[in-house]
Specification:
Strands 1, 2, 3, 4, 5, 6, 7 and 8 form an eight-stranded mixed sheet that branches. The longest helix has 17 residues, at 170-186. Helices cover 42% and strands 21% of the residues. It has a domain at 38-166 and 206-240: Rossmann fold (3-Layer(aba) Sandwich). It is built from eight helices and eight strands. It has helices at 21-34, 38-52, 68-74, 90-102, 139-152, 170-186, 191-201, 210-219; strands at residues 58-62, 82-87, 109-113, 125-131, 158-166, 208-209, 223-231, 234-240. The protein has 241 residues and is an alpha/beta fold.
Length: 241
Amino acid sequence: METDQIFKTKFEKSSDFKFDAAVVNVFDDMVVRSVPMYLEFQRMITEISADYAQPNTSLYDLGCSTGTTLLSLNTVLDESIKFVGVDESREMLNSCAKNLKNNGVTRPFEMVVADLNKQVKIENASVVVLCLTLQFVRPINRLKLLKSIQEQLNPHGCIILVEKVLAESSEFNRQFIKYYYDMKRRNDYNDMEIAQKREALENVLIPYKLSEDYQLLLDSGFHSCETFFKWYNFAGLVALK
């Protein structure tokens, strides 16, 4: 695993964050150091999925990145369950497929290139995971995407959503962001790295309030929506069809 040093050098001009080859090479280090309790909520995703993933169905990971979620799930789910990793980045999908093969995954799996701002085909799915993914979908397209997932998901299927979120009040929002940047400093990111990444993500990652994500799921037709994870400005939601 390469160390994330993408923003360690001063940029003359900021550009939007992209999941290109440079990011793919350091992605696993980046998320562990910059996303709070990343491995713990991955474990929680695995735990919840195990209760809803049905034999002879598919589990979709929308925005699968390098395959961390799928690798965690592989150890607990029935071998008849097919994995479908979906990502807009071909580099990410190549890395995901390589990681699955190198870790001895023998179940059927498929990698699909798709832009989640457009229609995504889902077949015979009992679980759909969006881990730090919906926040990168343009706001105007989020409800349409979730409705499409709900309509295509098998009856009694489950959606798992993990997102960076805004606090409900501006005061707590400022505090939570401060705590978040303190966490990054504890993980050896300096102030320039934090500032440059924040600027690169400004027009790319657009978080909602937890209450807004909750309402999106309900408006999409899901029910029994619950928060299963919360750390200041990060949250996990689960809902059923």
